[in-house]
Design brief:
InterPro entries: FA_desaturase_dom, Fatty_acid_desaturase. This protein is mainly α. The chain contains 15 helices and 4 strands.
């Protein structure tokens, strides 16, 4: 693996992997009542915020009540998606045997069906993290987020597409598993997406009906204000989720890899790829909770099925091990990571911003990317 082997010898890579395994084994052995109590407390807080938000919207004619209601509902949706839904569906609490915390049974408050998400995110993204033409989270099929993606005039709209994806992020996530770009290129048939589409339609219908019909109608003459409040809460959640996810995956120093580089990958090499392909966001305890601890994206990519509340506990140790081996540990405040991501989105909209074309003729994945030296 050219890019990975340049950093460590094969022996160092495997020793690095053993140190990562040791962290994982120690945390798994320590899981218990405190972890269960934590996630149950977060669930209680999320439900209380939703009840408070819905209730305050019944008094939406009073502006402070409407604002407070939208704020509470926004926080509820953020907690449901980030710290609860995302983490529970990763199997972080399957060891509890609690049906309410089962990765297979959980459904979250968003239009994206959980079953589709478990395939596109848990399997595809976390298996092939930052491997071009394998990890579909690189650009989500609509953005150019890596210089090794072959430029096309379409990408001149990169900043516009990114802004639209941020605003409608839950819908972008819903459509992600459809792989529409592959359908356009003839790599996947429309008929093969029948079950995926059926789940999307059912889930979207329930979500739209709940947020934009049922709850507004329950508030009678305040229905327009309630509908606006629900839309604002969804928008807030969308923008927040987009910002956190993109800051964990696409700042300037985060690296990508080719399929050839990751062929016959060992456990140690897989760990190394997670380190090089992720970035953290600094902040306080409440900030980390609201990000679902995806502000510790490095630790999440290393240990996706360990309860996310544990990531802050091991972050210092992971960083120290990286320093020991001379590996980068990308981290920074939200504003700096956001600026880095925004700069990359704009930069990669332009045709001259790519890697040297030494191997440009060797394209992979139906010509979507020109491999670069």
């Amino acid at each position: 693996m050219t890019g990975l082997q340049d950093r460590l010898t094969p022996e160092q890579v495997e020793e690095f992997g053993r140190e990562m395994d040791a962290i994982r084994q120690r945390i798994v052995a320590d899981l218990g009542a405190e972890d269960v109590q934590y996630i149950q407390n977060v669930i209680k807080a999320q439900r209380a915020l939703e009840v408070a938000g819905r209730g305050l919207l019944f008094a939406g004619f009073f502006p402070p009540a409407w604002i407070a209601g939208v704020g509470a509902l926004s926080l509820s949706k953020i907690l449901d998606n980030m710290e609860i839904g995302h983490n529970v569906m990763h199997g972080q609490y399957d060891w509890t045997r609690d049906p309410a915390l089962s990765s297979r049974r959980f459904e979250w408050d968003t239009v994206a069906p959980a079953e589709n998400w478990r395939h596109s995110h848990n399997y595809i993204h976390h298996t092939y993290t930052n491997i071009l033409d394998k990890d579909r989270d690189i650009g989500y099929g609509v953005l150019r987020m890596d210089p090794d993606q072959r430029w096309h005039p379409y990408y001149l709209g990169n900043p516009v597409y990114a802004a639209l994806l941020a605003v409608f992020f839950q819908w972008g996530v819903m459509l992600h598993d459809l792989e529409f770009d592959r359908i356009v290129k003839g790599e996947r048939s429309w008929a093969s997406t029948k079950e995926v589409r059926a789940r999307m339609v059912r889930k979207a219908a329930r979500q739209v009906g709940k947020d934009y019909a049922l709850f507004p109608l329950l508030t009678g003459p305040l229905a327009p204000l309630t509908l606006l409040g629900n839309a604002t809460a969804n928008l807030t959640r969308n923008l927040w989720a987009f910002a956190i996810i993109f800051c964990g995956h696409f700042p300037a120093d985060v690296e990508s890899f080719t399929e050839e580089e990751t062929e016959n990958e060992t456990r140690g090499q897989w760990y190394l790829r997670q380190i090089l392909g992720s970035a953290n966001i600094t902040g306080g305890p409440l900030f980390h909770i609201l990000t679902g601890n995806l502000s510790h994206q490095i630790e999440h990519h290393l240990f996706p099925d360990i309860p996310a509340r544990r990531y802050p506990q091991i972050a210092g140790e992971v960083r120290a091990i990286c320093a020991k081996y001379g590996l980068p540990y990308h981290t920074g405040p939200l504003h700096r990571q956001l600026f880095s991501v925004a700069r990359k989105i704009v930069k990669l909209a332009l045709p001259w911003n790519g890697r040297p074309s030494e191997r440009e003729s060797a394209t992979l994945g139906g010509g979507e990317r020109a491999a670069a030296a």
